[in-house]
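Write out this protein's structure.
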Amino acid sequence: MSIKGKAYIMGAFEHPLRDAPNKTTPQLHAECAAGALADAGLSKDDVDGYFCAGDAPGFGGLSMIDYMGLKNVRHLDSTETGGSSYIVHVGHAAEAIAAGKCSVALITLAGRPRQARGGGGGRGGGGEPAPEAGFENIYGGSTHNTYGMCAMRHMYEYGTTSEQLAWIKVAASHHAQWNEHAFLRDVVTVEDVVNSRMIADPLHLLDCCVVTDGGGALIVTSPEVAKKLNRPKVRVRGAGEAPKGPRGGLDLDLTHSGAVWSGPKAFEEAGVTPADIKYASIYDSFTITVLMQIEDLGFCEKGQGGRFVADGNLISGVGKLPFNTDGGGLCNNHPTNRGGITKVIEAVRQLRGEAHPKVQVANCDLAIAHGTGGSLGTRHGSATVILEREA
């Protein structure tokens, strides 16, 4: 069953707070939900499907449905795939709607990592360690180290440079300066990035994403509901998801991500190619994350990502692939370790023509949102959605 054209994103909201010491995680979820419902012109009584991930406290979806007073939910999905979770949920919501399981799906994310380690009490912040932890953590593994290894291997294989990676941060900063809510609004240069302190060789401080509180929400509806709403229509045209694992190191390749599988699935279902995309929301936990996903999604040949992102090619109005025009996770907002929802939100803004005028992409009618969750290059899940503005 194809989901092409069978669901629409009709509401989107990004929480304005980046530091929320006086809010609880459930409050942030509820405020994001209220914002997205208001944006769509719907009420919580219209919601009959609810989607969340490991950032939802307590019993996840069950707790949040009760807390937010959602009385008519008949479909629940709490799939957890880290940073790609909420891009996965857009696809899952479209599938549920196409199958008749619900007609108004609410998707919420929220977290307080600046206040409480582990994302503010969500299920992803504690519990038993992963089964591989006993074999890997004893060697000092960490998120930064793993991404540093991916960057180092990419440099070794393809001649990628720190200066090329820095252009990704530069592009994000050029966009963030126009976002009043962005955590970092100062425009930086390539020199600023490569001269910032080393975190995990070869990644510098400014190669890393910000850590913020906040959240976001989306409303996905059936075509029948969408027709009744006086809002711009953003159609879900295609979606793909895929896991990647090192299988004990048997076929480990640090230079590619699961996008090599999730991307083609989404493009095939949508019936478009990378050349058709006007705007790209790419998950940016680190600069190397963006570079590898751009290659794996087919925007350039493998190994050519460094050249592709250099010289402002990702800056709106300058380059050929405008990306993360809100500033992305590198400058704007990265609530919990599942910030993929912000990628969909900015794609929706672009397709509606509601992005900041300084970064709005001209004639933006087709966009991609893509995320990874887990550890880039090794064990993670990738998810891709293709979105289209309906005239």
